[in-house]
Write a structure and sequence with these properties.
The complex is a heterodimer of chains A (123) and B (592). Chain A has 123 residues and is mostly beta strands. Chain A is built from 1 helix and 8 strands. Among the domains of chain B are: 126 residues, Flavocytochrome C3, Chain A, domain 1; 122 residues, Fumarate reductase/succinate dehydrogenase flavoprotein-like, C-terminal domain (Methane Monooxygenase Hydroxylase, Chain G, domain 1, Up-down Bundle). Classes of the chains: A mainly beta (123), B alpha/beta (592).
Amino acid sequence: MGNGASDKTIRVTIQRFNPSTETTCRFQTYDVPFSTGLSVMNVLDYVYEHVDGTLAYYSHAACRRGVCGRCLLLINGKAGLACQTLVHGDLTLETPKQFPVVRDLVYSAPSLLQGEKDIFFID
Amino acid sequence: MDRVFETDVLVVGGAGAASMAAVHASKQGVKTTLVCKGRLGKSGATILAGAGIQMDGGSACALGLPGDPAWTKAKLFQEIVLEGFYLNNQTLVEVWTENAGPRLKELLDWGLQAVFRAPANFGTSGRELGRVCAEGVRRHEVDVVDDVMVVDLLTVRGCVVGALGVAVHTGDFVVFKAKAVVLTTGGWHQAYPFTSGTMDLSGDGPAMAYRGGAELSNMEMVTFCPNTVLWPEIHRGSIWGYVASFPLDVKLLNRKGEDIMAAYDPAIQEIAATTEFNKNIWSIASARAVAAGRGSPHGGVYWSLKHLPLNVFDDVLAQRYPNWRWQGEDFSDLIQMLKSGYAVEVAPAAHYFEGGIAINARGETTVAGLYAGGECASGVFGANRVCDATTEMVVFGAVAGASAGQYAKRVRARELAAKQVDALKDELLQPLHRRDGVSPAEVRRRIQAIAGTYVGILRNGLDLGRAVKALEAIRVTDLPRMAVISQDRGYNKEWIDALEVRNLLLCLEASARSAFLRTESRGLHYRVDCVEMDNDQWLKEIVVKESEGAMRLSTKPVTVTQMKLPTGRMTWEAYLMKTVPLLHELEVWTVG
């Protein structure tokens, strides 16, 4: 175990989509330093903070503790919360297929009160 | 085109205080709109709460619960003030004790799943509180707007007439016309490099209230939650390490394997082991170990169970954390580490903010039409919170919402000042237009570094002065240079960060200036260069207000109703040793 530092990097392939300039999603690959104990959310933070500030993923009101559920993604093809999924190696990250994509990894999902009353979404 | 919402009362917030405010505004028969930065019941501070809710025994009995009537409102009042180092606004403490029972009844009526514990506590979870608050909103006439960050208040001649927001998904501006605005936005956790709070807690409420002309107070008081998991990264910021400290005799070790509590007076060790002042004591001890160069590799201390038999995993921990889960997290990786003889790195995390927007007993601020409640408001807990913030959130959210509703019934709607709206939009759009500059993420890192280095647990005047200077430099040099790469406004994370950064900076600067001014140690404010609590000079709240473009500080005496204030000076440790027996007499403590 130890403190997890290593020289290893992983390849992270991320769904990109900008509704202002694109009509379909594409994928972009980043090399990210790897250490034991990282979550998928930590990897996204690294890309945003150090590699590509244009990356969009739901984080402005994320809880990071597996409670809010807003960071649900397809992680290597399987649905999981970005904040609670441990990274073991290379990653492919996409939005769940059933929801319309807002930008990159951000999508429009139903709220707790959906169907119960009028909720105003602006997307 | 901007989206425009017209309403009577606009409530800004994510769950607990916001839901209560919206419901109680709506009960006044006025049109009420609740705007969330994330999703209602799935954002804000509430969803990560521990979460205990307190009231008095009589109120519990009135709800048909097996409460202990000997646990009176007067005792609750004394507990809160003793734990708050007498800095509490006692008028607000009375509001807390008087309203806790009725508000809890409301949560129960909405279907709150909670376990009752004598004398008058409920144990539940943050997730459940979020769910039940959204349920309360569902049952009332409240419109909900999700994923909109409210960025500033709109005022006309000093009165609030609405607010301006940004729809995060599209980047469009959203204009809210309202007779009254209630701010229930929680703390400013993200100003700190290590925090237990959700990502949306960026001091939006206090910062926009300040820019709108309201007073802030007690901004120097910040609770740190010790034993918060620091590493592995996936658990960074989880308070599981703190809550799991109670059923066991956990040891906190420095990098040499020494118990960081060993050097303390046995009386202080006893207080740490048996009372909830352990938050203060463990935080200071952990910060001292790190300051002395004996911290763990990631800048914390080791949370160790190695001195205990392996049986405790099955016999104690597994009972409390079935499948090694707590709230939304799976801790089996940490359990595996601990069973193998490793320790978990933990540190004190910025956790709760006692200070904020100054309010009176009706939740009114000093600005007409502006109300505040919950963590983003100030006063009830004084210099230290021990009692449950969840009670504060439901009580003061409701008070502020009801007052705002009554006010909205009395006043006529006013037109917005179009020029103000346009000027504000131009200012907010600046980072999108700059070609070169500094990234918002970089500015946030600089702010967090100052918070962590100079405005943390162990404070001194020299460092606090440095913090003020460094924050001024960021305000003057970096804020006007913030630039984002993508010009497209839809979920533009850098732009949202830029809008948050100005709020984080404002809150931290108010905090650092207040902490510099307060030349004593009281509660959470621990000055190594003024170790005594000075009751003759400092039973005063520090108030921060904008005046002619500058941050002005003043003091006002503590508001007293029932409990006489102490005099003289004593060390922080002496205060604890004197106060804990008083709390034992009240039969307060139920750690674990």
